[in-house]
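User: Can you recover a sequence for this backbone? Please restate the input before giving your answer.

Assistant: Of course. Working from this structure:
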């Protein structure tokens, strides 16, 4: 597919969104920047954009094959994902299978406690207000989504969780939690957007419980890129690795 990169529409903390010659499509460029704590802690990690785009593409492909509507059209080359342009809903939809992170800081859950059924939490994606946790009533009053849309989002999110949890476990990775974002496509469908990567998920090695995600960066530990590459190595097929010239 020949998609020309056009004007920059939006530069976020880790990705840039570009217009293309098709008004219903964008190119999402995955940058090497990594941030934590509302952007207070910030660094650049060589090849992070490359790996996050390849990892995200893999997950989007797996989900599409299972019938989930996603933004994904194709990975033009590592770092550059051709996507449906979405009118984003400013919600961070968080799903938790194992208690970790802010959940155990804010509530009396035990560290690594299994959460079955999974816990779904929605935060308002708004840096100025530091992404506060929502309930349906506040979300609807703010005009962010209708009850019907929220019910639909929960339903799709649980399906996504089940699909990815199984896919990862088969590859020796636990899926404690993840954050996703949705938007409306040009036909008004609610579609999964943004990314699914070690920046936005917790991944633990199921055999060693080794952390393989952004928590390493948050805690100032070394080996962040090695962990991201290990996730890529564990989830990509030999065919994927050959296609993107990845020798892991
Ligand atoms: N398919 C899409 N179409 C349009 N915008 C998208 C799409 N997927 C993701 N986005 C938006 O693009 C931006 C991605 O950039 P990034 O993740 O770096 O931003 P962010 O720092 O999380 O967000 P922000 O700067 O908005 O707080 C986000 O605002 C995200 O909501
Ligand atoms: Mg983001």
């Amino acid at each position: 597919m020949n998609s020309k990169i056009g004007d920059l529409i939006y530069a976020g903390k880790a990705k840039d969104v570009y217009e293309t010659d098709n008004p219903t499509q964008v190119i999402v460029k995955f940058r090497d920047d990594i941030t934590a704590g509302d952007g207070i802690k910030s660094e650049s990690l060589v090849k992070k954009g490359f790996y996050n785009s390849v990892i995200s593409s893999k997950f989007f492909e797996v989900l599409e094959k299972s019938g989930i509507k996603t933004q994904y059209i194709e990975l033009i080359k590592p770092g550059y994902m051709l996507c449906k342009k979405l009118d984003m809903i400013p919600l961070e939809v968080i799903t938790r299978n194992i208690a970790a992170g802010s959940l155990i800081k804010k509530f009396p859950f035990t560290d690594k406690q299994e959460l079955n059924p999974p816990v779904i939490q929605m935060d308002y994606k708004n840096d100025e207000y530091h992404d506060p946790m929502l309930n349906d009533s506040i979300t609807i009053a703010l005009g962010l989504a209708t009850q019907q849309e929220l019910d639909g989002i929960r339903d799709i999110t649980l399906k996504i969780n089940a699909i990815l949890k199984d896919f990862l476990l088969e590859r020796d990775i636990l899926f404690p939690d993840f954050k996703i974002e949705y938007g409306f496509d040009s036909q008004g469908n609610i579609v999964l957007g943004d990314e699914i990567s070690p920046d936005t998920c917790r991944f633990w090695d199921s055999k060693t419980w080794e952390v393989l995600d952004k928590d390493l960066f948050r805690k100032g530990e070394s080996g962040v890129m090695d962990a991201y590459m290990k996730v890529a190595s564990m989830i990509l097929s030999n065919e994927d690795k050959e296609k993107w010239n990845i020798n892991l």
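That completes the design. The chain has seven helices and 14 strands.
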